[in-house]
Amino acid sequence: MTRALLLAERGLFTTAPNPRVGCVIVKDNAIIAEGWHQRAGQAHAEANALAQLDNQQARGADCYITLEPCSHTGRTPPCVDALIKSGIKRAFIAMKDPNPLVSGQGIDKLKQAGIEVIVGVLAQQAEQLNRGFCQRMRLGRPYVRSKIAMSLDGRTAMASGESQWITGSQARQDVQKLRAQSAAILTGIGTVLTDDPQLTVRPEGWYPAGQAVRQPLRVVVDSDLKIAVDAKVLNAEAETCIATLNSSSDKDLNIIITKPDNDRVDLKQLMRQLAEREINDVMVEAGAVLNGALLAAGLIDELIIYMAPKLMGDGGRGLFHLPGLQTMANNIDLNIIDIRAVGNDWRITALPLYA
């Protein structure tokens, strides 16, 4: 199963909106075939593994799959039928598919065909690999990860707004990998007006060879539609949509309209609408106002903070605009799950513990 998970991870940048899945077929204590899902619309992991075998080679074999095999016809035929036809004896499945179109049906169909099924092998690792897909299926919203670069004294920009560059080149390359794993990048109009970012994946030197780059959808929260038509985030490098309250505009824009929430875009509704577009993972690259609003709404699932070994002074800008936090009792606690060096900087991964 560990091998199957490693195979599944090869689809980290390409499988969206589908989950990342790996498959290993074992017979007589030896791996005889393996496969992984590479891109939506292409063959699933099980089909790719079985395609390496003739009609008899899989008979009596064990199959290790990181996610329950699909039992419905989508862009491809049901994998459970192919597994049954192959004659495998046992199926080891890391986790049940949270997709209600599948959830348990693939497992049941294997059992009905007389195949022994063992579920739960390395389930936690399989869940981590597909956190966004699982959350979208269960809660109807994407998994939201906010990336923030800060100084040792907790500043994200100088008082003037200058922020390039707080961190070093290795940390910035690490951010590129996070972008590539995400189906959408979310920012605010303040960041667009101040920094004019492009928010695309730049794959130089680290992107897997032979894989076409899948650019995330760029989403700009712009309640009053202030964005300029020549903003870099509107270039042709990737698709962009604007989340706004303003439905009347002569600008040629891809617009998502939400209801007002205190005269601002309703962020919870926006996340539901992104889920309806099959967005599994959202990466936030924004300033204190949007990050604070997302945190106050309980919408940030994970914080990735790059801390640089420099001091920017008490006049610099902070990480979150959270005017509602007035007492220690109102604090938002964090569960720090990982700290590691990235070049000369530190990357801290933390999960907000909402009351």
Query: How far apart lie the N and C ends?
Result: 36 Å
H/E element string? HEEHEHEHEHHEHEHEEEEEHEHEEE
Radius of gyration, in Å, reads 22 Å
Strand order of the largest sheet: 10-9-8-7-13-6-14-16-15
- The stretches of 5 or more residues where confidence is low (pLDDT under 50) are none
Residues in helices, as a percent range: 10-25%
- The gross shape turns out to be elongated
Strand content: 15-25%
Count up the helices.
10
Please provide the count of β strands.
16
Structural write-up:
The protein has 355 residues and is of the alpha/beta class. Helix content is 24%, strand content 24%. The protein has helices at 2-8, 45-50, 79-86, 105-112, 123-129, 131-139, 169-181, 189-195, 267-276, 288-296, and strands at residues 22-27, 30-36, 62-65, 90-93, 116-119, 143-151, 184-188, 217-221, 240-244, 255-257, 260-261, 264-265, 281-284, 302-308, 333-342, 345-353. The protein has a nine-stranded mixed β-sheet. Strands 2-1-3-4-5 form a five-stranded mixed β-sheet. Strands 11-12 form a two-stranded antiparallel sheet. It is elongated. The mean pLDDT is 92.
Provide the descriptors you would attach to this structure in a database record.
24% helix; 9-stranded mixed sheet; 355 residues; 5-stranded mixed sheet; alpha/beta; 16 strands
Report a brief summary of the structure:
This protein is an alpha/beta fold and 355 residues long. Helices cover 24% and strands 24% of the residues. The chain has ten helices and 16 strands.
Topology:
Elements: H1 2-8, E1 22-27, E2 30-36, H2 45-50, E3 62-65, H3 79-86, E4 90-93, H4 105-112, E5 116-119, H5 123-129, H6 131-139, E6 143-151, H7 169-181, E7 184-188, H8 189-195, E8 217-221, E9 240-244, E10 255-257, E11 260-261, E12 264-265, H9 267-276, E13 281-284, H10 288-296, E14 302-308, E15 333-342, E16 345-353
Parallel strand pairs: 3-4, 4-5, 6-13, 6-14, 7-8, 7-13, 8-9, 9-10
Antiparallel strand pairs: 1-2, 1-3, 11-12, 14-16, 15-16
Helix pairs in contact: 3-4
